[in-house]
Amino acid sequence: MSETWKPSVTVAAIVPRQNGERLEFLMIEETTADGVRLNQAAGHLDPNESLEQAVVRETMEETAHEFVPEALVGTYMSKFISPNSGKEVTYLRFAFCGKVIAQHDRPLDHGILRALWMTYEEILACQEMHRSPLILQCLQDYLAGQRAPLDLMYTHPSVTNSAN
């Protein structure tokens, strides 16, 4: 009997801010097996958490910013093959947009070099550094106004260990 194939479930935060005339997005630079890469605050769904809890946690761990998700921008799937190891992974990404309400003085997750604010044009200009091919698609969908209400997602209490 063969194993059931399962994609790697991830979340990503699209965090805009208006800085004068510039619309900027919160991004991270991180070290990976394939070198320094640029990404949205993003990461894997952990056991016993909802998708919303995961994106809040990942944003805090990677940027030290407290994130409040406001909408689901979209769900995305891509396949990644590491140029160094040849390892193949399919990612299923849930991208949320929202706002940050506070920045904390805390260390960033292992491997995160820094959090930074960039315009769409700046992000577009450095595609060779993108960790995921989904970064631009998520931003383009956000800029096009694509939003789904958070109440379209439901997490049964059994997932977060809050079932009776």
Automatic annotation (TrEMBL):
Keywords: Hydrolase, Magnesium. SUPFAM superfamilies: Nudix. Coiled coil: none annotated. InterPro entries: NUDIX_hydrolase-like_dom_sf (IPR015797), NUDIX_hydrolase_dom (IPR000086), NudJ (IPR033713). It comes from the Bacteria. Its cofactor is Mg(2+). Transmembrane segments: none annotated. Signal peptide: none annotated. Residues 4-142 form the Nudix hydrolase domain. Gene3D superfamilies: Nucleoside Triphosphate Pyrophosphohydrolase. The keyword Acyltransferase does not apply. Its EC number is 3.6.1.-. GO terms for molecular function: hydrolase activity. It is an enzyme of class 3 (hydrolase). The keyword Magnesium applies. Monomer. Belongs to the Nudix hydrolase family. NudJ subfamily. This is Phosphatase NudJ. The gene is nudJ.
